[in-house]
Design a protein that fits this description.
The protein has 441 residues and is α/β, with parallel strands linked by helices. α3 crosses α5 and α8 crosses α11. It is globular and about 65 Å long. The two termini are 31 Å apart.
Amino acid sequence: MSNHLALKKGLNIPLKGVAAPEVIKTVVPDIVAVKPTDFKGLVARLLVKEGDTVKAGSPVMADKQRPEILFTTPVSGTVCGIARGEKRKLLAILVKADSQQEFVDFGANAPASARETKDLLLKTGLWGSLIQRPYGIMANPDITPKAIFISSFSTAPLATDTDFTLVEARTDIQAGVDALGKIAPVHFCVRKAGSSFGGIKNAKLHAVGGPHPAGNVGVQISHISPIHKGETVWTMSLLNLAALGHVINTGKLDLTRKVAVTGPAAAKTGYVVALPGTPVKDITDVKEGVRVVGGDVLTGENLGADGYLGFFEDQLTLLEEGDKREWLGWAKPVRTKVFSSSWCYFSWLAPRKKYNMDTNLHGGVRAFVETKCFEDVTPMDIFPIYLIKACLAGDIEKMEKFGIYEVLPEDLALCDFVDPSKNEIQAIIQNGIDLMIKEMA
C-alpha cells in the first residue's frame, strides 16, 4: 500500500468557533471524576471506598472479567463519593484532589519486551486507552494484534490541533511508539499538508490528506491494512500515547492535557489545561440553552453543564440548543445562514463561510430515502447504505459481507449529517456491532 493517501470523499463542516491557538487558563480541579462509562466493554469492579486516600496513578477500579486491567485516578486525594445509577450501576468515582499532588512511582524504564509493555499499560491504567478493532472494545491482553495504528491528527469539526497541544511531547510520543512496537508493528499517520510528528522513528509513516473523515484511524486502517474476519488491530490516540511515553520517561502518570474549548456558543475559544474528570463548569462557562458536547459535534457526548471531561476527550464544543422553530423552514426561498452539503441552498457559493449552527435537526425522522449521499462522504471500500440496512435487519451474514469489521460508528458519522431521512446512522451501526459481539463472541 502507498505511504501517501489522498482521499477525496468526505465533507468538512464549516462550523464557527475554532479554538484560538493559545492557552486561556489552567484548571486546578477540586474534585475529579473517574468514569467507567468512558470505556466500552468494561464491567467495573470498585477497588476503593469513600474516605480512602489515593495517589495519582493508584488503581480505583478493575475489569470484572479481566481483573489485571486496572483503572487509575489522575490525581492524589481522598475518595469523596461513589456515583451510581439504575441497578446500582457504577457511574463515577469522585476524588477530592490534594493541594500538593503525590504520584505513584512506576519507574522510569523503557520496556524491553511485549510482556513488559503490556504489564506497564495494565498497572498504570492506560490499558483502557487501547481500542481493539473490530467492534471498538477494550483490547484483550491475551492476544497479539496484526498491527497498532495511531492517527496524529483529527479532521473532525473544530478538532484539537495536535501540532499545538502535543508538539512539546515529541520525546514522550517517540517513547510510546518504541514501547508499542514491542507488541506489534506500529503504523503512524500524519497530516499530508505538514506535521510536527513526521520524524517519528520505529514506525511505518503514512501521510494522509483529504476532508473529514480522513483523520479517523478507521478510515486510515481501511486503506493501509484492511481488517478481515479473524484479524485484530489495536489503536491508540496520540494523547494517550504521549501519556504512556511520559510514564516511561519519568515514572509518573500525568494525564494533563490542553482541552480545546470550541463552538459558536463558547464565550471564549482557546485551550484550557485540565485533567480528565475535571468538571465542565471549571473549564468553561455554560449559559442556559447551551449544549456542552464532549468531543466534536458529530461523535461527541452531551455532557451537560454538571458533567465531567471524559478520559478520551480533549475538546468541548458548545452549541445553542435547537429548540426554536424556523419560519417557513425548508420552504423559505433564501436561507443564507444555513449550510447544506447538497446544492439545495446557496451555501456552495460561499465555500469559505463559517456557520453558526445549533442542534436543530431541521425535520423529523421520515421514510428511508436511498441516495448516493452516504457514499459521497465515506472514503472506504464499503457500501454504507447496504451495511446500514443489514444492521437494521440484524442480518449477521450481510453485515460481514458489507464491512462491519472495518467500521465504528464514528466512521459513518457524516452519514448522520447528510441523511435526508434524519436517521441515527451511528446508533444503527452500534446496534449492529453489539449484535455481532453478542452472537460471535
